[in-house]
Design a protein that fits this description.
Strand content: 15-25%
Number of strands: 11
CATH topology of the largest domain: Rossmann fold
CATH architecture of the largest domain: 3-Layer(aba) Sandwich
Number of domains: 3
Distance between the termini: 80 Å
Largest sheet: 7 strands, mixed
Mean pLDDT: 73
Shape: globular
Strand order of the largest sheet: 1-2-3-5-4-6-7
Order of helices and strands: HEHEEEHHEHHHEHEHHEEEE
Low-confidence stretches: 1-26, 291-304, 308-313, 315-393
CATH class of the largest domain: Alpha Beta
């Protein structure tokens, strides 16, 4: 980090100049307040940074109106400045200054050498007109999902409304002023900081909610964006309820794929037992789900639907209109399930072509596979009738 002589800094400030800033603030707009080490400003997570505080319009559409102080942390380029790299963290509600040191420590040397690195406390957070309601936040426990009843959904909506009202009350803020904290206003604070820093363009990185922040800035000031990087993108072209549904479905799809992959890995399957791959297509009325083992699997997965037809069970794959296999239950209670009639040491591990009770007149064949080393067990199973057969029946 570059160390500036204290005497030079004092002289420049007394002369009304700003280091790396513009000569004067915009008329009736932002005003420079101070620059000091972030550790002195109370931002312990940005100890390597210098904290710059500007007085900005509460409503940028009315620059001559009320002003707030907002604070940015800047770690100036170690060499010649080639650009400005701004990180917008997620939330909304997270403090960029709280994580500035840890994030910057992972940046490549080229970034630290050629870029001013910037983090910020967005208006309403940390050092920038903070709005807090800790008691309300930690006492809130609303929850709703696809299994919730209409009454539970209504209760969740009421609890959410109450949370907002209680939060504003605890913070001592009029709910009517909520638009002051909007993203559209916050990005104009960044534009004011860009002007102060005298930077022609900004390279923006956003994560999670931060992607909404940087996209909003880019839409408002496209000629001021040198580059845009987004991670965990908020889709601003989709309304919030639809986006939430799409996000939940995407997360669910990834989880299902991950668990299905786990089923095929013996090590993962051994430490994560359970039915990881339930059928994704519900069974039709009268066709309860059954379970059958997959080759190499160490547990059972729901893959078929079944119903009894006379003395026999008929199974079919969910979503298909016609049955795919007919069987007779081993015990009379379970179709193609936990009672496969296999050689003793292969029981629940192999997939016979048919199964039946020992007293049935029908013959059932089942390959003993490696579990019985090609031999039939001594529990009533005999070699199949065909010449050269390795089946047991």
């Amino acid at each position: 980090m570059r160390i500036r002589p204290v005497l030079v800094l004092v002289v420049l400030l007394l002369a009304g100049c700003r280091i790396d800033g513009t000569a004067s603030p915009a008329p009736d707009g932002w005003e420079f307040v101070s620059e000091q080490p972030c550790a002195d400003a109370g931002a312990d997570g940005a100890s390597d940074f210098s904290c710059v505080t500007l007085s900005v319009p509460v409503d940028h559409a009315q620059p001559a109106g009320e002003h707030w102080d907002v604070t940015f942390g800047v770690l100036r380029a170690e060499g010649e400045r080639k650009g400005v790299y701004v990180t917008a963290t997620g939330g909304p509600g997270s403090s960029g200054l709280d994580v500035a040191d840890s994030y910057a420590a992972a940046f490549p040397d080229d970034v630290r050498q050629g870029f001013d690195v910037v983090f910020l406390d967005q208006r309403g957070i940390g050092l920038s007109q903070e709005l807090r309601c800790d008691d309300t936040y930690y006492s809130y426990s609303g929850f709703v999902d696809t299994s919730s009843t209409p009454a539970e959904r209504d209760a969740f909506a009421d609890a959410s409304t109450g949370f907002g009202e209680d939060c504003f009350a605890e913070a001592g803020v009029d709910p009517a002023t909520a638009p002051r904290y909007a993203t559209a206003q916050a990005v104009e604070d960044l534009e004011d900081f860009r002007q102060w820093l005298d930077a022609p363009e900004l390279t923006l990185y956003g994560e999670s909610y931060g992607t909404q922040y940087v996209q909003t800035y880019a839409a408002a000031h496209p000629d001021r964006v040198a580059g845009l990087l987004v991670d965990g993108v908020v889709d601003l072209a989709t309304d919030q309820p639809e986006f939430a549904v799409e996000q939940a479905q995407g997360q669910s799809d990834v989880l299902v794929a991950t668990l299905a992959r786990c089923d095929t890995n013996p090590v993962c399957a051994a430490v994560a037992p359970g039915d990881s791959s339930p059928t994704t297509t519900p069974c039709s009325p009268g066709w309860p789900p059954t379970r059958s083992p997959r080759p190499g699997a160490t547990r059972w997965t729901t893959t078929r639907c079944a119903r009894r037809r006379g003395r026999r069970w008929v199974t079919r794959t969910p979503g298909r209109s016609s049955p795919t296999r007919s069987t007779t239950p081993w015990s009379g209670t379970s179709p193609v399930s936990t009672h496969w009639a296999t050689a003793a040491t292969a029981r629940r591990r192999t997939s016979p072509t048919r199964c039946t009770t020992p007293s049935s007149a029908r013959t059932t064949t089942s390959s003993p596979r490696a579990a019985t080393r090609g031999r039939c067990s001594t529990t009533g199973w005999t070699p199949g009738p065909r010449r050269g057969s390795t089946s047991c029946g």
